[in-house]
Design brief:
The protein has about 375 residues and is α/β, with parallel strands linked by helices. It has 2 domains: about 130 residues, Lyase, Ornithine Decarboxylase, Chain A, domain 1 (Beta Barrel); about 220 residues, Alpha-Beta Barrel (TIM Barrel), CATH 3.20.20. Helices cover about 30% and strands about 25% of the residues. It contains 12 helices and 16 strands. The strands form 2 sheets. Strands 1, 10, 11, 12, 13, 14, 15 and 16 form an 8-stranded mixed sheet that branches. The protein has an 8-stranded parallel barrel with strand order 2-3-4-5-6-7-8-9, surrounded by 4 helices. The longest helix is centred in the middle third of the chain and has 19 residues. About 40% of the residues are buried. It binds pyridoxal-5'-phosphate. Pyridoxal-5'-phosphate binds next to helix 9.
């Protein structure tokens, strides 16, 4: 398949860039002794799980479906799961397919004790607790801050028992979002000061996700030093579970200009891609995604979509010239938190999923149709 033959909209995942990210993460693993897991919530395109599994230690899941996906598509690698609450029937299955199960509260830990204790006694599962270090390092988007004052994520120090509950072997924190090493270092210092009394009884510590390890300028030497310190001071395995860093900048979303509406301040281009349906983080976070065709001081345009949502606007950009109807525009960094979050609001077609392989070939991984829309509604 050639680029011209691709449908729009299409997500194009870049195998070469994915491998570059994985090489960086693998180097961090080798030099620090940490284990790194793919957080599937960010990127679950399982066609590339064999590639990811050949570099990383495994995956972490947000619930039973992601855990099943990992067990089917990345067999033989570690399979961790954290969810704020599990249903009884899910816990049975989770204990069969996962090797590390994390609880968000003491009540969930005890509620499911009988089930997980059976798997622990067979040596198949290790149990962890998510704790909340109550140390916020982000400003501006509380929606992504698990340490916000009203957070429900992780047990606060005041709610922890004097000693770790029987059977618990690991502690988990996840507090960062698209951040460098400094906030992690500061967070770990607080975590160690307040929760360090439990560390001697642990087999592992998981430092969560949100580490922008594959971004240029990330202080990887600092990270490697911290991990080595934790491993030697407390004799524990250290896990990291990034999502973004695995597939950062490893995807595009191509779209086509369908119409140009003359709105008062600048022309608004109607695309066949939608923020609301195909890149929901643009509205949720909010942020303006990179556009490959954009330039400085060009023609100002607003990029929007063909849904009914008045605010379904992707952003305002400068382009070298006003595009023609039928021209293509390309959004960058569209592998992460895109496919996993898309939806068919307004009956909007889902983008094709395409893999740009390292040999330059475009491989169609999945094309969606009307049946995919209909099936979810009946
Ligand atoms: C518990 C947990 N782990 C890992 C991640 C992955 O974070 P990121 O994709 O920012 O690295 C998230 C993201 O929300 C998370 O909630």
């Amino acid at each position: 398949m050639t680029y011209q033959e691709l449908n729009t909209p299409s997500y194009i995942v870049l195998e070469g860039k994915l491998r570059k990210n994985l090489e960086i993460l693998s180097d961090v693993m080798k030099r620090s002794g940490a284990k790194i897991l793919l957080a599937q919530k960010a990127f679950s395109m399982f066609r590339v799980y064999p590639l990811i599994g050949s570099y990383l230690s495994g995956t972490t899941s947000s619930g039973i479906y992601e855990a099943r996906l990992a067990s089917e598509e990345m067999p033989g690698r570690e399979n961790h799961v954290f969810e704020p609450a599990y249903k009884d029937e899910e816990m049975e299955d989770i204990c069969k397919i996962c090797d590390h199960v994390y609880f968000n509260s003491l009540s969930q830990l005890e509620h499911h004790r009988k089930t997980w204790e059976r798997s622990v006694s067979e040596g198949r599962v290790s149990i962890g607790l998510r704790v909340n270090p109550e140390f916020s390092t982000q400003e501006g988007h509380e929606i992504y801050d698990p340490c916000s004052p009203v957070s429900r994520l992780g047990i606060r120090l005041k709610d922890m028992p004097g000693e770790l509950p029987e059977g618990v072997e690991g502690l988990h924190i996840h507090t960062l979002c698209e951040q460098g090493f400094e906030p992690l270092k500061e967070t770990f210092e607080v975590f160690e000061k307040n929760f360090g009394k439990y560390f001697g009884a642990l087999k592992w510590i998981n430092l969560g996700g949100g580490h922008h390890i594959t971004k240029e300028g990330y202080d990887r030497e600092g990270l490697i030093g911290l991990i080595k310190y934790i491993r030697s001071a407390y004799n524990v395995e250290v896990y990291l579970e990034p999502g973004e860093a695995v597939a950062l900048d490893a995807g595009l979303l191509i779209s086509e200009v369908m119409d140009i509406v003359d709105t008062p301040d600048m022309p608004t281009l109607i695309l066949d891609a939608s923020a609301a349906c195909h890149m929901p983080d643009v509205l949720e976070m909010p942020y303006t995604p990179p556009l490959l065709e954009a330039c400085d001081n060009g023609v100002k345009v607003r990029l929007s979509s063909r849904t009914c949502l008045a605010g379904d606007t992707i952003g305002e950009y400068d382009l070298p010239k006003l595009p023609d109807i039928g021209d293509r525009l390309t959004f960058g960094d569209m592998a992460i938190y895109s496919m996993v979050k898309n939806n068919t609001f307004n009956g909007m077609p889902l983008p094709d999923i395409v893999l740009l392989k390292e040999d330059g070939e475009y491989a169609l991984v999945k094309r969606f149709g009307y049946e995919d829309f209909k099936e979810r509604l009946s």
